[in-house]
């Protein structure tokens, strides 16, 4: 089977920022805007997942400020990243979109829904957590995060550890997904991106959850929270915290899956996303 190919980059100038983005999928319908994980670029989504979602709706991928092919300096707060995302979507001329945020992208998606609720029709929060949520506790986490600076082999081993369960089936599905992802041309993120995003995540995690709950209660958008049952990067308990505090939220937990549940089960994930957005 021929792998789904991403279209060429398009560019949008907003102030001093030239956002790089890709449009795929159908011509009609409300676009689904994807917000990527830590240090990720447009090419770090699993193409099999994208293909199955894009069969039913317009999809927009983009590199936020300072990441990948977008110029500028990556901000060090989640709220600023969300405001940059708003400026990008507004610059495209959309008055309403659906949002899918994965990992740090899910934190940005929450901030976007809180500060620009009219822009967001439906919200998908994948492998993420609330402000003031539960941080990672695995003793090898920091070591593996920095190991990704090495060779492609190191990067693959890092992703297998961070994103997938340490089972034979989990690693096999992880390798299949990573082979699809790594076959795509990409532009690696810089150390400035890494450090700024780490600072943003730390600030987000160190906030008071009692205060964050108030903002979560104000999210009126229909929301799908989804994760694996063994997420070591953004512990799965965070997904329960989100679903219990966003009024119109539903929760899906994949068994024997980790942070990369959406890549481990790309077709299943796409089906859940499309079903939710079509309701």
From TrEMBL:
Alphabetic keyword roster: Hydrolase
Domain spans labelled AB hydrolase-1: 38-266
Superkingdom classification of source: Bacteria
Any single GO BP term: acylglycerol catabolic process
GO MF term list: monoacylglycerol lipase activity
Tagged with keyword Hydrolase: yes
Pfam families per record: Abhydrolase_1 (PF00561)
InterPro entries per the UniProt record, alphabetical: AB_hydrolase_1, AB_hydrolase_fold, AB_hydrolase_sf
Gene Ontology CC annotation, any one: membrane
Name of this chain's protein: Alpha/beta hydrolase
């Amino acid at each position: 089977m021929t792998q789904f190919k991403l279209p060429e980059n398009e560019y949008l100038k907003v102030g001093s920022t030239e956002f790089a983005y890709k449009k795929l999928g159908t011509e009609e319908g409300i676009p689904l805007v994807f917000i990527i994980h830590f240090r990720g670029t447009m090419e770090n989504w699993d193409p099999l997942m994208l293909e199955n979602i894009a069969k039913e709706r317009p999809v927009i991928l983009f590199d936020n400020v300072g990441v990948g092919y977008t110029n500028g300096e990556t901000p060090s707060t989640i709220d600023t990243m969300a405001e940059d995302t708003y400026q990008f979507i507004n610059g495209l001329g959309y008055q309403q979109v659906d949002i899918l945020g994965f990992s740090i992208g899910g934190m940005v998606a929450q901030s976007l829904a809180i500060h620009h609720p009219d822009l967001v029709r439906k919200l998908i929060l994948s492998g993420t957590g609330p402000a003031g949520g539960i941080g990672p506790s695995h003793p090898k986490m920091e070591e593996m995060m920095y190991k990704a600076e090495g060779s492609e082999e190191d990067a693959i081993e890092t992703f297998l550890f961070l994103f997938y369960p340490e089972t034979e089936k989990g690693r096999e599905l992880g390798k299949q997904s990573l082979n699809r992802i790594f076959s795509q041309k990409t532009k690696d993120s810089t150390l400035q991106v890494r450090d700024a995003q780490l600072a943003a995540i730390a600030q987000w995690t160190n906030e008071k959850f009692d205060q964050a709950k108030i903002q979560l209660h104000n999210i009126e958008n229909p929301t799908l929270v989804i994760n694996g049952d063994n997420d070591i990067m953004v512990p799965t308990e965070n997904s329960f915290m989100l679903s219990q505090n966003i009024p119109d939220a539903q929760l899906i937990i994949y068994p024997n899956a980790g942070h990369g549940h959406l890549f481990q089960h790309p077709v299943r994930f796409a089906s859940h996303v499309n079903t939710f957005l079509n309701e």
